[in-house]
Hints:
The chain is of the alpha+beta class. The chain has one domain (3-129): Yope Regulator, Chain: A (2-Layer Sandwich). The chain has helices spanning 3-14, 63-74, 104-129; strands at 18-23, 28-33, 38-46, 49-58, 81-84, 90-98.
Amino acid sequence: MSDSFQKVKDYLTQLNYSITKEDPAEELVIIEDEENGIKNLIIDCEDPILIFEQVIMETPSNNDVFFKRLLQMNRTLVHGAFALDEDAKIVIFRDTLQLENLDLNEIEGSIKALSLALAENADELLSYSK
């Protein structure tokens, strides 16, 4: 287990996030804070970066309009972005930070940015998932 992975875990504990799963060999954790829309947020130490990924929804069938809206939504996000998996079947939220100079505020900012993105866009995202 690297020092970076332990530092990330310590920061998450300080921020009172619930670590629901952990894989020390892969240096990743999964956290939840359902009250703020965080469900199975994967936080992965991939030196030199820290990756945050949370599945949002399946890609709807009316792709062209939806993809355009996702790009427009991204413009308003504080950190991270809505993205697609390799097959363009799943919408995820993704953010990355540098591990070298990582601090508590950066992790907190990335996670809060996800919560804010979901709060601001939840109704519209849900409308596409129907």
